[in-house]
């Protein structure tokens, strides 16, 4: 028997088994340490703040995440989900869905998580509810242009945030005290968190699950949802939106929202000898109210 040869072969076999594991560990982003402590018994109350125009995927995506969480050590649902609005009046969301809110801001249970989707202009009362409720939340999170609602509370001043990529320019102009992070899937600051647009809210919700119950539970939730996105494990995974697209004569972009426009039919304005095209009359009005600001913000992005 060749003992040395047998030992060498056994060692090579062990290394062959360990290398793929090492590669997987190296490729997987390290789990962040800012974990949250769930209650010992009661479910975590999650308030979805909605108003007319609320974008369905912005709140239904995170809703699906939280409702699908299964914690092996618990028999009940770990999250208690409910909608909140300024009044009990039915809400007409994007696409025409109608929702009757569970609670108003006057009688809603104190949330530990608040989800703020893109929606209509918030009233002072709604902004005050967000401020007061956020004093005791574990996470107050916005999805898409829900970041504008959260920003209007002043809670994000001096902090970093992200939002829907087409709203980057408007967000920077409207909230100069907030550092906009382009290319971020989501941004976390203490108990405040903002995500990019639309499906980004699913990733931020999975990240919240991870902070409460660990990566394994979050990964199992994503698996059960048949959700294959990996953004919840990498906050900087929206790099495709890190650089603003350039508007050209052949392919003009709206300077307000950054979306493609058809110059043959689009509303337009001329400022300092440059013609700007817009997605809508509302965007044209927004531009015309402060053309110098938009012109400066898009300098170098128009050819």
What features would you describe in this structure?
About 35% of the residues lie in helices and about 15% in strands. By secondary structure, the protein is of the alpha/beta class. The protein has a seven-stranded mixed sheet with strand order 5-2-1-6-7-11-10, with helices on both faces. Helix 2 (about 55-65) runs parallel beside helix 6 (about 200-215). It is globular and about 65 Å long. The N and C termini lie far apart (about 75 Å).
Lay out the secondary structure:
Elements: H1 3-27, E1 44-49, H2 56-67, E2 79-85, E3 91-92, E4 98-99, E5 103-104, E6 113-116, H3 124-134, E7 139-142, H4 146-151, E8 160-161, H5 168-174, E9 179-180, E10 186-189, E11 192-195, H6 200-213, H7 215-224, E12 268-271, E13 274-277, H8 281-289, H9 291-297
Helix pairs in contact: 2-6, 6-7
Which terms summarize this structure?
303 residues, alpha/beta, Rossmann fold, Ribosomal Protein L24e, Chain: T, 2 domains
């Amino acid at each position: 028997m060749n003992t040395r040869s047998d030992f060498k072969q056994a060692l090579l076999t062990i290394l062959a088994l360990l290398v793929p594991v090492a590669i997987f560990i190296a490729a997987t982003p390290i789990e962040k340490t800012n974990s949250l402590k769930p209650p010992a018994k009661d479910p975590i109350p999650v308030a979805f703040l909605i108003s007319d125009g609320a974008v369905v995927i912005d709140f239904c995506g995170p809703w699906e995440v939280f409702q699908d969480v299964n914690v092996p050590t618990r028999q009940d649902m770990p999250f208690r989900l409910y909608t909140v609005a300024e009044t009990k009046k039915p809400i007409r969301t994007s696409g025409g869905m109608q929702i009757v809110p569970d609670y108003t801001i006057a009688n809603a249970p104190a949330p530990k998580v608040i989800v703020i989707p893109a929606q209509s202009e918030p009233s002072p009362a709604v902004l005050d509810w967000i401020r007061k409720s956020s004093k005791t939340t574990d996470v107050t999170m916005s999805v898409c242009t829900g970041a504008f609602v959260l920003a209007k509370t002043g809670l994000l001043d001096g902090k970093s945030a992200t939002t829907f990529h087409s709203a980057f320019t408007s967000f920077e102009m409207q909230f100069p005290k907030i550092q906009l992070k382009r290319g971020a899937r989501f941004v976390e600051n203490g108990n405040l968190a903002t995500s990019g647009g639309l499906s980004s809210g699913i990733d931020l919700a999975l990240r919240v699950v991870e902070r409460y119950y660990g990566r394994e539970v979050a990964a199992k939730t994503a698996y059960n949802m048949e959700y294959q996105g990996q953004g919840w494990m990498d906050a900087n995974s929206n790099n495709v939106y890190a650089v603003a697209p350039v508007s050209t004569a052949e392919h003009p972009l709206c300077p307000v929202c950054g979306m493609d426009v058809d110059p043959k039919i689009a509303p337009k304005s001329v400022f300092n000898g440059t013609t700007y095209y817009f997605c809508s009359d509302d965007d044209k009005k927004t531009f015309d109210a402060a053309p110098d600001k938009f012109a400066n913000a898009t300098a170098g992005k128009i050819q």
